[in-house]
Q: What sequence folds into this?
């Protein structure tokens, strides 16, 4: 509930009216003293007003205020627990959970599963499958009734064949009514199609709407809509349904004994390091962007290299010829989606702010603390940009030295 | 611009590229499918002399043949055509064809630009042929036929790349991150010819007859749903502006550098 004070005119009126049966005197002004005489303490009367002057309020309004404030404060409401004790059927959802966290795409998928489970008279349970570790904190509100966790070392790397074999066996054990996967580049699209091929089911791919017993999916690489009957395996797009938000769910760990054996033909050799400037600006995760405030461009490039950041630029920097046109961030350039965006010497024109609207964390390095970029930024460093970059470079070098020292110490220890 | 990959692949590698008729995103005219053209480009870089291009579909309309000529304009002598009538599943004829030819590597796009475009074809083929399937590759680093494996680069989100070792033979779908296809040359396109194979086994797609296909409608934008219980909360949600200036402002150079470094470490970037 909110902290907003609400006036209670009736309580105020009662407080003012000393003849009202519910009237309670503000405080006992008259006390029996140590000698037995009734004494009135004149210092206790009234309160100190906002100007530091003592005020005596004989209307009783301040007393009523306090009562009203107490009434407004309430404890945070806990969402009702959604329980499915003896489910008539199950709906299996294999979430992506990149880094153990549920993405919004995962939550939408679970939301659709929840609506499918509670559609008719029969009650279904949503069973979510997690591979790898779970680090998600708000798991209770995601809409998972029971949870299956494949926690093994081999799921830490890319092993789609093993995951597919596990899911296949899980489907034969649980016999779910529907199987839902996010149609995402983070693995869901691949896993879902593998599953469909091994189980010989025709999947509905790129589903974006489910109405009754029909669904609408995108066909022709997104140019057509196909309305078709609801299928068993659905690969759903983002925003296919609202995520669960009204209920808490049990997340009951379901123990199923599954050890699927399959011939692994693909072996993960790990990610390779990519030159950050080769990455397309629109999908780069970490951008160091320079603008009009930069005097020392070689230092900017050095900092980008040391941090491992993709370089971006504002329109002014591009117009002045310091950066190529394809590096421009903003309405006329690229709309970026970086997790961290560091703006060096960019004051923040509205066109630039539009371009960085989807960034998670924005860091501003600027000499002017009243500019728009500082207002938008989560962290602002005010000062000369080249000096701050210098400090940053020194710190990175120290850090690198430290880690190398630790490594050598560990070697000789 | 293109790196010469042919020396990384050992000799006698047989590569099949499955191509389809695409649609230009703006003019909607038939043209090379973007990902299929990239797959062909990758095949041309790896084994230009031992390349087989397969197209399964109808050749009755002139548009399809024009598009196949566009593919041949990339420097190919012939395209093998499996003449499958429209609204018929192409998986079975392709399966027969690949069983006969036994290629080491099959390259194709992620999904077709027409029809259902579910992206299931490479998975179905890999399941039937018992081949490995590697999705969304950007490059093939090396193919070692004697050892029986290849090293492949996979395209991941945020421009990252994963190196994967895969047993031969395998099927791979090529991502848009792969090298852009070369231009189509008119002379080469005219010199190439189509080798049309008759198809014996076909499967009519009965499911599709129940479907209603319409031009894609714009998806509704998700609105911010306010689940306020009181009038005051609703009022606040309707009028409150996003609080700006919640960020930390630091005036000292050294402190700010430390704060930035800490933020980068918290976000797991350094």
A:
């Amino acid at each position: 509930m909110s902290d907003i004070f609400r006036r209670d005119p009736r309580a105020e009126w009662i407080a003012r009216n000393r003849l009202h049966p519910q009237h309670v005197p503000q405080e006992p002004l008259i006390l029996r003293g140590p000698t037995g005489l009734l004494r009135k303490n004149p210092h206790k009367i009234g309160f100190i007003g906002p100007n530091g002057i003592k005020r005596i309020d004989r209307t009783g309004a301040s007393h009523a205020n306090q009562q009203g404030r107490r009434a407004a404060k309430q404890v945070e409401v806990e969402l009702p627990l959604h329980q499915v004790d003896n489910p008539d059927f199950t709906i299996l959802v294999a979430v992506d959970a990149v880094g153990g966290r549920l993405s919004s795409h995962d939550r939408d998928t679970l939301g659709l599963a929840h609506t499918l489970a509670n559609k008719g008279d029969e009650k279904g349970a949503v069973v979510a499958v997690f591979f790898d570790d779970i680090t998600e904190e708000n798991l209770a509100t995601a809409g998972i009734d029971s949870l299956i966790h494949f926690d093994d070392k081999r799921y830490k790397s890319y092993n789609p064949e093993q995951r597919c074999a596990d899911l296949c066996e899980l489907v034969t054990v649980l016999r779910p009514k529907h199987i839902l996967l996010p149609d995402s580049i983070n693995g869901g699209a691949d896993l879902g199609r593998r599953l469909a091929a091994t189980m010989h089911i025709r999947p509905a791919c790129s589903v974006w709407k489910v109405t009754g017993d029909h669904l609408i999916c995108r066909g022709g690489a997104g140019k057509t809509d196909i309305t078709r009957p609801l299928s068993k395996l659905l690969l759903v797009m983002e925003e296919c349904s609202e995520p669960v938000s009204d209920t808490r769910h049990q997340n009951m760990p379901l123990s199923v004994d599954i050890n699927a054996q399959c011939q692994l033909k693909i072996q993960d050799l790990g990610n390779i390091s990519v030159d950050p400037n080769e990455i397309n600006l629109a999908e780069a995760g970490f951008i160091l962007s320079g603008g009009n405030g930069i005097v020392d461009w070689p230092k900017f490039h050095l900092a980008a290299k040391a941090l491992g950041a993709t370089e971006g630029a504002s329109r002014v920097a591009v117009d002045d010829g310091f950066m190529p046109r394809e590096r421009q961030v903003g309405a006329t350039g690229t709309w970026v989606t970086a997790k961290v965006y560091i703006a060096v010497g960019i004051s923040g024109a509205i066109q630039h702010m539009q371009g960085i609207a989807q960034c998670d964390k924005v860091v501003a390095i600027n000499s002017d603390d009243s500019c728009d970029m500082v207002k938008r930024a989560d962290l602002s460093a005010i000062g000369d940009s080249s000096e701050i970059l210098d400090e940053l470079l020194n710190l990175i070098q120290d850090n690198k030295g430290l880690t190398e020292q630790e490594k050598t110490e560990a070697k000789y220890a | 611009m293109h790196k010469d990959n042919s020396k990384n692949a050992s000799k006698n590698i047989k590569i099949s590229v499955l191509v389809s008729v695409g649609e230009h995103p703006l003019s909607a005219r038939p043209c090379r499918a973007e990902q299929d053209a990239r797959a062909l480009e990758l095949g041309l870089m790896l084994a230009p002399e031992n390349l087989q291009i397969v197209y399964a579909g109808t050749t009755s309309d002139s548009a399809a043949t024009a598009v196949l000529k566009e593919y041949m304009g990339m420097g190919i002598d012939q395209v093998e055509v499996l003449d499958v009538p429209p609204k018929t599943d192409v998986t079975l004829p392709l399966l027969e064809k690949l069983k006969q030819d036994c290629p080491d590597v099959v390259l194709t796009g992620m999904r077709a630009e027409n029809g259902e475009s579910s992206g299931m074809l490479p998975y179905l083929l890999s399941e039937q042929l018992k081949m490995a399937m590697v999705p969304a590759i950007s490059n093939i680093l090396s193919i070692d036929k004697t050892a029986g494996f290849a090293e492949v680069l996979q395209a991941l989100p945020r421009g990252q790349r994963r190196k994967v070792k895969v047993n031969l033979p395998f099927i791979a779908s090529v991502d848009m991150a792969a090298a852009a296809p070369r231009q189509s040359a008119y002379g080469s396109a005219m010199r190439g010819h189509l080798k049309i194979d008759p198809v014996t086994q076909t499967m009519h797609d009965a499911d599709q007859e129940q479907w209603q296909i319409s031009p894609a409608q714009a998806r509704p934008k998700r609105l911010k749903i306010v689940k306020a219980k009181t009038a005051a909360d609703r009022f606040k949600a309707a009028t409150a502006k996003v609080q700006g200036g919640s960020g930390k402002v630091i005036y000292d150079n050294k402190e700010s550098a430390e704060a930035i470094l800490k933020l980068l470490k918290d976000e797991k970037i350094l």
Observations:
- Chain B touches chain A through 77 residues (CB under 8 Å).
- The longest helix of chain B spans residues 253-266.
- Helices of chain B lie at 34-46, 62-72, 91-101, 121-129, 186-191, 231-239, 253-266.
